[in-house]
Amino acid sequence: MPLTEMQVNELLSCEKAHRLDLKDERCRLWSEKLQACSTPGGTACLRVQEDLPLEYFDFVPRLRVLQEFFDQTLPTVLTHRFCDLRFDEFLENYPMAGKEAGLEISFFEPR
Question: Is the C-alpha dihedral spanning 93, 95, 96, 98 positive or negative?
Answer without folding.
Answer: positive
